[in-house]
Amino acid sequence: MPKKALVTGACGFTGSHMLELLADEGWDVVATDLEGAERDAYYTEAEGDVPNPVYYRDIFEEVGAEFIPADITKQSTLYPVFEDHDYDVVFHIASLFDYFAEWDVLHKVNIEGGRNIGEVAAEHDVGHFVHWSTLGVLGDAGFDEPNKEDAPYEPHNRYCKSKVKQEEVLHELHEEEDLPLSIVRPAPIYGPRHGYGVYHILLLLRKFGFAPVTRIYPRSKQLMFPCVHVHDLVNGALFVHENKEETVGETYHVLSDCIGQDELIEFLAESLGVKKKRIPASFGAYKLYGRIAKWASHRIERQAREKGTRPKVDASMTHYLTHNMWFSNQKIKNLGYDFKYRDARKGLWDYITWCKEKGMV
Residue 300 pLDDT more than 90? Predict the structure, then answer.
């Protein structure tokens, strides 16, 4: 008899890939998500040629999963999802991933919604609860060593703050209600069907036709960039479940080996066929540039809010290019997980190839 899984946020980018993986592995899968029109109410669309999140309404039919619509902000709608189902694992992916969203909306969806589904899952004695968080709950790493899973919380935007609170709520349920919790913290995700975050870097490079490759000196101050291909993320989450005897109560970073930002930009420029120029800069000068870029991006965002629109690039995205986002993936590798794209450039090349085939870059 096949094992049974529930996937929340099943019609989103990552959720749809989780459904495909489980179907390929022969699982009995139940998918849940908001209906499309209800999802639209939480998101302010960008103008112009900037992609907006896509709702994959037909994905559950394509993979043969049962679909039960629910709204995690309304706990009463979750009980039908659990009735008459004995889940071996819940992959809780549903969250509002939007750097532009206001705090009250993030609190409602991510924190209250996380508590709602965690409580219902605990009531129904699910076998395992694998929760999606984000590396953004942690702060800059400094330059001595990468941030590990036990680094202190230091979120840098509203979305990441909501994910900290979400983790804390679920840890409470783990301790007080015996929710068999494991947490995965992905880096910025990319892969087929992706269009928010990493894709914006590709879009900007293609639009401007030029890539400034900043070489920071001393080289010991070179900033790092984290990312993960969606293939490695969903397989990593399944791996965490398959080893639940060791992973319950634990948190795992899921990302490729970090690479320098200068290496990343140079690789992307070559892959996209745009001109590049190496620009040497002292660490102090780059920090000043980072502060100016942050100020400018937040100013543009404020102006967009006043007009009832959103900018083409959310202000919080600049943080990843102006701070040392250096994280360790050693814990999950020590458990035995083997990344397909340990070198992020291999995964990014596959993704860029897909984008070219779709006419996206």
Answer: no
